[in-house]
């Protein structure tokens, strides 16, 4: 008793135990369990010690530790079977129970319920009619083990009683699997049943309700047992059965059972589009198409570079709006569960989201055409700068070639780097989101992750472009607003026209996207809603604004000028 109590005290703080401490404690309690005469006090102390060992950190386990723990699980099976009749030992991480039943009993049942203290013996039950006992208690049953015996058991056993011992592990730390990894730190309950004569076993059925982790739901599962020869989980002799009430398995032996469940993130597929976005983007598409057609049709009235730049901006924005309307919502939503027919051990408790194509392609195209839009915005700003600095000669001769290379090539480089460093077919969510087709920005815990492509693949390049465009707008506004004292008042540009020119340049340079950065950093809910609405209105209607400022206004001005010219000519005729 002294040794058992000492080990229990020494392991009372599991977080402080070293690998050697854990190994030594496992060896000692294993020797105690192997003793032929073990009184109740020692047994309770030993079970409490094992429960405490199941609180230890697996990172501290060595190979010797796993061997000692594996031997301990073997000894526990024999101990459970050889305990005195109707004995129950319950601890937070371990429960052991044994009974003897008449030889004619057709089946034995073991259950585990929730809603009681971790130390309460009533949270488990073992008997010929344990399932009804659990139902009558009114407490939820999260594990049910049904052991069916062969019909000829009475003939083989005569009047002898049948002994059974059950061990329930609340986690699988003592079972170190090499082929199944726990990335979500989920726990798997392991249950072992031992019969005094295993030849009487027909089969074992067990149902477990897996615990869903935060933000995820069960996807598939495998019914397994622990193979001491291979020292890993195996599926031989076990099959899984579809059951809406929980995970249901059937095996032809009574070794350490477990259910390996794979989880998939429980996504909320919010609709990224609302009526404001749809109407605004649709009107912008019409406006941009009309602007591009008008610019091409009237290209002889202005410099060739101006037409080329504005048409490319319209092309990029039109493509982006079309992709946004028809592709931003994920067309292939991941299913909540997909229980396969085959009983195959998953590689991890986190189900891999194998890429199905459309959403990743749409994300890449959205990233490309948005970056291309701002690349052409920069080129438009550079063109304006050259016109201000050198009104007669304008930009360099190679400007068109440079513009085509930068406008279409730079975004392709950024998208290529983003895909090559974050995307894989088996894990596309390193590059994009699942809820809707856009760049990934958050880690698995829902926190902003600077390693995701949203930051360096979009926000940072866009911020650099917006800074350049803002500087150009300030320079342009300052230049046109500084009055030339040598000009006569009749030749001076009205202030209204100067403001309109600056506003038009701000629109075509996409400076309304600056509002989006304020949306990201604000913590006030009211301000967040206001900025979000303003950002949505400004950017979904940017195409409409370009149409009004660069097409409709120019068309009306030309039409008015033509009418005035025709009136002047008619008055001048004799």
UniProtKB/TrEMBL annotation:
Gene3D superfamilies, sorted: 2.60.220.50, Rhodopsin 7-helix transmembrane proteins
Broad class of where this protein is predominantly found: membrane
Transmembrane segments: 272-296, 308-328, 365-386, 398-419, 454-478, 499-521, 527-552
Keyword Transmembrane: yes
Cellular compartment(s): Membrane
Annotated keywords: Disulfide bond, Membrane, Transmembrane, Transmembrane helix
GO biological process terms held by the UniProt record: cell surface receptor signaling pathway
All residue ranges annotated as the GAIN-B domain in the record: 85-267
Entries under PANTHER family matching the protein: ADHESION G PROTEIN-COUPLED RECEPTOR G7
Protein name: Adhesion G protein-coupled receptor G7, tandem duplicate 2
Species per Swiss-Prot/TrEMBL record: Cyprinus carpio carpio
């Amino acid at each position: 008793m002294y040794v058992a109590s000492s080990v229990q005290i020494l392991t009372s703080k599991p977080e402080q135990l070293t690998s050697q401490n854990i190994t030594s404690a496992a060896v000692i309690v294993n020797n105690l369990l192997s003793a032929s005469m073990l009184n109740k006090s020692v047994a309770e102390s030993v079970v409490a010690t094992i429960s405490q060992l199941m609180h230890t950190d697996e990172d501290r386990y060595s190979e010797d530790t796993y061997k000692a723990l594996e031997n301990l699980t073997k000894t526990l099976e024999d101990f459970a079977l050889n305990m005195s009749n109707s004995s129950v030992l319950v601890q937070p991480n371990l429960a052991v129970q044994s009974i003897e039943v008449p030889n004619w009993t057709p089946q034995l049942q073991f259950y585990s319920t929730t809603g009681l203290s971790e130390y309460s013996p009533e949270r488990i039950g073992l008997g010929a009619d344990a399932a009804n006992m659990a139902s009558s208690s009114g407490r939820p049953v999260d594990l049910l083990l049904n052991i069916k015996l062969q019909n000829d058991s009475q003939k083989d056993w005569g009047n002898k009683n049948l002994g059974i011992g059950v061990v329930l592990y609340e986690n699988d730390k003592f079972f170190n699997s090499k082929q199944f990894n726990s990335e979500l730190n989920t726990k798997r309950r392991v249950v072992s049943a031992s019969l005094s004569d295993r030849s009487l076993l027909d089969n074992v059925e067990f149902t477990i309700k897996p615990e869903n982790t935060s933000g995820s739901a069960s996807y598939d599962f495998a019914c397994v047992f622990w193979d001491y020869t291979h020292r890993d989980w195996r599926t031989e002799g076990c099959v899984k059965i579809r059951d809406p009430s929980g995970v249901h398995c059937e095996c032809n032996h009574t070794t350490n059972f477990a259910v390996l469940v794979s989880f998939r993130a429980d996504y909320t597929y919010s609709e990224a589009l609302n009526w404001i976005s749809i109407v605004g983007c649709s009107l912008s598409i019409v406006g941009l198409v009309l602007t591009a057609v008008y610019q091409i049709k009237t290209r002889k009235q202005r410099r060739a570079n101006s037409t080329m730049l504005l048409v490319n901006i319209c092309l990029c924005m039109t493509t982006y709006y079309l992709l946004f309307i028809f592709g931003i919502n994920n067309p292939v939503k991941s299913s909540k569960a997909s229980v396969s027919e085959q009983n195959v051990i998953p590689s991890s408790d986190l189900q891999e989201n194998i890429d199905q194509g459309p959403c990743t392609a749409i994300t890449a195209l959205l990233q490309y055409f948005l970056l291309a839009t701002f690349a052409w915005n920069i080129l438009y700003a550079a063109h304006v700068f050259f016109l201000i600095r050198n009104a007669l000669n304008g930009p360099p001769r190679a400007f068109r070639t440079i513009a085509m290379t930068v406008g279409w090539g730079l975004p392709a480089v950024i998208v290529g780097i983003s895909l090559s460093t974050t995307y894989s077919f088996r894990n596309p969510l390193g590059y994009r989101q699942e809820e809707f087709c856009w760049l990934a920005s958050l880690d698995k815990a829902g926190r902003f992750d600077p390693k995701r492509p949203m930051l360096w693949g979009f926000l940072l390049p866009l911020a650099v472009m917006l800074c350049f465009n803002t500087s150009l707008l300030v320079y342009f506004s300052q230049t046109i607003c500084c009055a030339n004292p040598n000009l006569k008042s009749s030749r001076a540009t009205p202030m209204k026209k100067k403001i309109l020119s600056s506003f038009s340049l701000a629109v075509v340079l996409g400076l309304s996207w600056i509002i989006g950065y304020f949306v990201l950093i604000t913590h006030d809910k009211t301000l967040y809603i206001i900025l979000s609405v303003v950002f949505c209105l400004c950017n979904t209607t940017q195409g409409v604004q370009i149409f009004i400022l660069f097409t409709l206004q120019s068309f009306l001005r030309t039409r008015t000028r033509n009418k005035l010219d025709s009136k002047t000519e008619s008055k001048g005729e004799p």
